[in-house]
């Protein structure tokens, strides 16, 4: 509701500043006037109520729409609270129904208490209808706080963010700025050429370049810092009887929930900085018919190793012991060889060309780039490991950081074995275990082993009576 | 660890009841593929001709110089992969799962467990109709990566497979 007013405020602002003729001013005023009327009418027309275990929403000014959703179809209820929402102490409710992206529903601006009540009605209804869950229902709907991100930890998370990404944004911004300046007639290239590079200026230019790099680094740091604080301020993870709730955000508060049985994959990761700071990032991916966007994935940052272990114990329960027993194996050396060969083929023409011209700076750059790729490939190869247990699949990876994915075998939807001509020559294959929130990929394993693993996974899937969600 | 390995063998003994037997697609489906590829080649020729007509005189040479090799490469590649790839296309239906293999160079073999199937659909394209062929699509909850499409089936055969899968999934839900 409030969102609708927002553009109007902007209009008023722009209006006062820029409108040059009365005609435009009047046109705008009329537009704003009707906009406000429209918003008010829309506000009173937008109603929701629960009847016969259905959630009914009616809305629309000119075209009336009436949405009916059976309560037991609602998969999850999430809260969001933007800054304007916070001012008025209301929340936005997002409801996710089984099906495609279109079936998502949003209720803007509910009073917080109302929203809580509504979500409780929806969730408790869901439990009451399925007989199996009835016992659990009586036990608890209490939240147990399992993880809180302290301010110090938040700082750590900000520092260890992926700064290259923020740096990229800035670089992009500079290029954009540069282009625009040129369009404005400030020909930077032309100006630069005016300065003939004599010795004194070269050292000066180096200094400027150095300063610029330092500036970019600092700004990147600040950007990732601010982004982290906005996103993860006051991050809390709660444990419910059968799921998790993650709450965070400074200006835009979000609350996401996931049921254990809906979680198809769990993943923790660390980049290089995070592994030095000994903190982990955790992602729990939920089932969805659409590809899992960030929305359906619960992400928690700044966790310690024990926190990860504890969460894994909650999700996998008894299987946790199996996970701990698993000894991941390395993939075939072709995983490394392939990367080395591809890089070699790509670089070969350039290298040969530069060698004809003698050793130039380009040769040095190319060589160091190639060496860097080889080093990264080597790391990637040594870190790529997999283990398929009776009930759980684990895949490890990472180049400078580390990543580990977990999935329960019986939740697989399909198994795929792919081979390239090169793999077939070496009797290798890639195994894909596809589940409702993505895929776990085990590259470069012996073909026979891939067949065996496939049969084992299929056996597990086909012989289970458990529902995958 | 040893205990785990033991159990592993027992499990395999159970599951390898029957190795999936790959069934070839109807041979007339090759013609369907070839025709649709030829249509896309004609489409490309159309695009190149249009570009040629629109371009300035000086640039016409460039269009020919670039267009002809691209056209040749594309035609050879798409017809070659159509022909070679057809040999590797096939499906296998077992009691509890359905598989589809495809690909001449980049080969993939996808298996979907029948108790994970969300719904099944039988389709028929325009060209396929001329050859009296159907395709069956098996959808799971895993998104596009885990859905399989088996083309080149006789319509009655496609319907039989569909019936079989639907019955199986209904059977599973009863239990």
Give an overview in words:
The complex is a heterodimer of chains A (469) and B (175). By secondary structure, chain A is of the alpha+beta class. Among the domains of chain A are: 156-232; 236-331 and 384-463, no CATH class; 334-381. Chain A has helices at residues 2-18, 22-45, 83-88, 112-129, 134-139, 151-159, 163-183, 188-194, 199-232, 272-277, 305-316, 319-325, 334-356, 361-383, 421-425, 447-463, and strands at residues 47-51, 54-59, 65-70, 74-81, 90-97, 105-111, 144-148, 236-239, 243-248, 253-259, 263-270, 280-286, 297-303, 329-330, 385-388, 392-397, 402-408, 412-419, 428-435, 438-446. A 7-stranded antiparallel beta sheet of chain A has the order 6-5-4-10-9-8-7. In chain A, strand 16 and strand 17 form a beta hairpin. In chain A, helix 1 packs antiparallel against helix 2 (22-45) and helix 6 (151-159) crosses helix 9 (199-232). The radius of gyration of chain A is 28 Å and the shape is globular. The model of chain A is unreliable at 1-19 and 130-140 (pLDDT under 50). By secondary structure, chain B is an alpha+beta fold. Chain B has 2 domains: 31-85; 90-174, Pleckstrin-homology domain (PH domain)/Phosphotyrosine-binding domain (PTB) (PH-domain like). Chain B is built from 5 helices and 7 strands; from the N terminus they run H-E-H-H-E-E-E-E-H-E-E-H. In chain B, the strands form 2 sheets. Chain B has a 4-stranded antiparallel beta sheet with strand order 1-2-3-4. A 3-stranded antiparallel beta sheet of chain B has the order 5-6-7. In chain B, strand 2 (90-93) and strand 3 form a beta hairpin. Chain B is elongated and about 70 Å long. In chain B, 22% of the residues are buried. Mean pLDDT of chain B is 84; it is low at 1-17. Strand 18 of chain A pairs antiparallel with strand 4 (107-113) of chain B.
């Amino acid at each position: 509701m409030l969102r609708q007013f927002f553009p109007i405020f902007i209009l008023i602002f722009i209006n006062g500043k820029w409108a040059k003729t009365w005609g435009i001013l009047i046109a705008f005023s009329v537009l704003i006037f009707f906009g406000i009327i429209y918003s008010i009418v829309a506000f009173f027309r937008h109603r929701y109520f629960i009847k016969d275990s259905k959630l009914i929403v009616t809305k629309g000014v000119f075209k009336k729409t009436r949405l009916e959703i059976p309560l037991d179809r609602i998969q999850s209820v999430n809260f969001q609270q933007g800054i304007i929402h916070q001012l008025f102490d209301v929340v936005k409710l997002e409801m996710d129904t089984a099906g495609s992206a279109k079936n998502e529903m949003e209720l803007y601006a509910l009073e917080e208490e109302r929203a809580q009540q509504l979500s409780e009605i929806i969730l408790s209804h869901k439990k009451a209808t399925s007989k199996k869950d009835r016992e659990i229902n009586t036990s608890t709907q209490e939240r147990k706080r399992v993880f809180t991100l302290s301010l110090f930890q938040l700082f750590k998370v900000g520092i260890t963010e992926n700064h290259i990404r923020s740096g990229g944004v800035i670089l992009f911004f500079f290029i954009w700025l540069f282009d625009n300046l040129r369009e404005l007639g400030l020909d930077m290239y032309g100006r630069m050429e005016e300065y003939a590079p004599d010795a004194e200026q070269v050292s000066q230019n180096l200094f400027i370049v150095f300063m610029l790099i330092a500036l970019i680094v600092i700004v990147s740091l600040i950007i990732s810092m601010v982004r982290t604080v906005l996103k993860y301020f006051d991050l809390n993870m709660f444990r419910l009887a059968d799921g998790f709730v993650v709450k965070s955000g400074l200006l835009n508060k979000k609350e996401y929930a996931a049921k254990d049985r809906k979680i198809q994959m769990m993943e923790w990761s660390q980049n290089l900085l995070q592994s030095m700071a000994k903190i982990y990032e955790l992602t729990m991916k939920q089932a969805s018919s659409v590809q899992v966007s960030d929305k359906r994935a619960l992400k928690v940052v700044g966790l310690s190793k024990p926190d990860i272990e504890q969460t894994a114990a909650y999700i996998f329960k008894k299987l946790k012991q199996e996970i701990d027993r698993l000894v991941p194996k390395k993939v075939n050396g072709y995983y490394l060889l392939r990367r080395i060969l591809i890089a070699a083929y790509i670089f070969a023409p350039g290298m040969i060309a530069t060698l004809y011209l003698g050793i130039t700076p380009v040769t040095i750059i190319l060589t160091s780039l190639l060496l860097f790729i080889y080093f990264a490939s080597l790391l990637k190869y040594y870190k790529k490991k997999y283990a398929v247990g009776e009930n759980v699949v684990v895949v490890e990876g990472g180049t400078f950081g580390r990543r580990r994915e977990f999935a329960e075998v019986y939740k697989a939807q399909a198994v795929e074995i792919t081979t390239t001509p090169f793999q077939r020559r070496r009797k290798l294959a890639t195994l894909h275990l596809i589940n409702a929130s993505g895929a776990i990929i085990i590259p470069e394993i012996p073909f026979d082993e891939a067949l065996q693993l496939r049969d084992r996974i299929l056996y597990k899937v086909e012989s289970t009576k458990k529902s995958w969600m | 660890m040893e205990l785990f390995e033991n159990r592993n063998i027992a499990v395999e003994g159970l599951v390898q009841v029957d190795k999936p037997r790959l069934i070839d697609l109807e041979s007339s489906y090759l013609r369907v593929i070839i025709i649709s590829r030829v249509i896309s080649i004609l489409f490309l020729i159309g695009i190149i001709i249009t570009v040629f007509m629109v371009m300035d005189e000086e640039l016409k040479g460039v269009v020919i110089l670039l267009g002809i090799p691209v056209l040749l490469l594309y035609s050879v590649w798409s017809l070659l992969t159509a022909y070679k790839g057809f040999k590797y296309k096939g499906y296998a239906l077992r009691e509890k799962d359905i598989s589809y293999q495809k690909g001449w160079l980049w080969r993939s073999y996808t298996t979907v467990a029948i108790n994970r199937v969300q719904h099944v659909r039988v389709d028929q394209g325009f060209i396929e109709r001329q050859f009296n062929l159907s395709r069956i699509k098996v959808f799971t909850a895993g998104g596009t990566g885990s859905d399989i499409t088996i083309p080149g089936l006789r319509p009655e055969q496609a319907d039989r497979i569909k019936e079989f899968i639907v019955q199986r999934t209904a059977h599973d839900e009863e239990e």
